[in-house]
Amino acid sequence: MIARRPEPQHIRPAHVITALSHGLRLFARTAQVCIVYAGTFALLGMVLIWLLSVAGLAPMGLPLVGGFLLVAPALLPGFFAISAVQRSGRKPAWRDVAKGILNTPRALWGLLLVCAFLFVIWMTDAGILYSFMLGRNYAGWEMLFPLSATLLRFHLGAAVAGSLFALIVFCITAYAVPLLIERRANLVTAVTASVRAVFRSIAANALWSLILATSVIFSIIVPLLLTIVLPIVAFATESLYRAVFPGSEDSQD
Q1: To 5 degrees, how large is the angle CA 174–CA 179–CA 184?
Q2: Distance, C-alpha 107 to centroid of its chain
Q3: What is the pLDDT of residue 43?
Q4: Residues contacting 137, CB < 8 A, separation 6+
Q5: How many CB atoms lie within 10 A of CB 189?
Q6: In 3D, which of 87, 76, 79, 142 has the Cα closest to residue 109?
Q7: CA quadruple 251, 2, 108, 170: dihedral positive or negative?
Q8: How far apart are CA 160 and CA 166, in angstroms?
Q9: I want to staple 239 with a disulfide (CB 3.0 to 4.6 A). Which of 22, 133, 192, 215 is the partner?
Q10: Can you name the residues that pair with 57 across neighbouring β-strands?
């Protein structure tokens, strides 16, 4: 049964450390399927950055990497499925990931479409900034990074603009996505509950968002790390969610 209005509990920064510890332990138990699942997106990211480099738009690689944070919630259904199977005592397999994705509620797809729309706006803004501040071809992987004053200004400007989109997505999805995955709320209720939960525990959520952003962005730049970091933060996200919205499955190993 869908709860009409889930009430968020207050959490402290210590909960974030506990959640990361839980995420690490769960990853260790499900490493094989997690690495393959996360590796698929790491490979896709590498291909997209390579295509930008070949097209002479290498500096757009970092905005693309940052934009991943806007669409990363779409991966949570697969990781939640892995976690659920592990709790049941079975060994997770690819069919469980596929089942979790296919069983994603329509309300969640609606929320993910909003995230995708914000991602498109973000990349469009970064492209406009690129045309005004750079306006020429930059090929080669090394041009991903701010190696000159001009590139540094571009990346700083893009980061300032992107941080607003990232903050919006974090507030509306941090707890709404898990609530929708488990069908504990409808779309409006889930988003409202997520925003309330974020602002009820500002210190803990600020720490979590900082860890989330820095770890994922750095891992995309060093793609092999993403296959490890992405499952850990996904499982940590579930752990925090269960601390904020305790339910029938809030026990952890």
Answers
A1: 160
A2: 18
A3: 86
A4: 56, 57
A5: 19
A6: 76
A7: negative
A8: 10
A9: 22
A10: 138
pTM of the model: 0.87
Candidates 65, 80, 95, 97; CA nearest to 181 is 80
**pLDDT band of 187, cuts 50, 70, 90:** very high
Structure-block tokens of residue 28:
């260790």
Residues found in the chain: 253
Report d(CA 65, CA 101) in Å as an integer: 23
Rounded CA-CA distance 115/118 in Å is 5
Q: Per residue in 25-43, pLDDT tens?
A: 999 999 999 999 998 888 8
DSSP readout, the chain? ---SSPPPPP--HHHHHHHHHHHHHHHHHSHHHHHHHHHHHHHHHHHHHHHHHHTTBGGGHHHHHHHHHHHGGGGHHHHHHHHHHHHTTSPP-HHHHHHHHHT--HHHHHHHHHHHHHHHHHHHHHHHHHHHHT-S-B-SGGGGS--SHHHHHHHHHHHHHHHHHHHHHHHHHTTHHHHHHTTSS-HHHHHHHHHHHHHHTHHHHHHHHHHHHHHHHHHHHSGGGHHHHHHHHHHHHHHHHHHHS--TT----
CA-to-CA distance for 50 and 47, rounded, in angstroms? 5
Q: Which residue has the tokens 């209720």?
A: 189
Amino acid at site 127: G
Question: Which tokens is 113 given?
Answer: 């479409």
* Residue 46 predicted with pLDDT over 80: yes
The residue behind tokens 């939640």 is 80
CA distance 237 to 190: 15
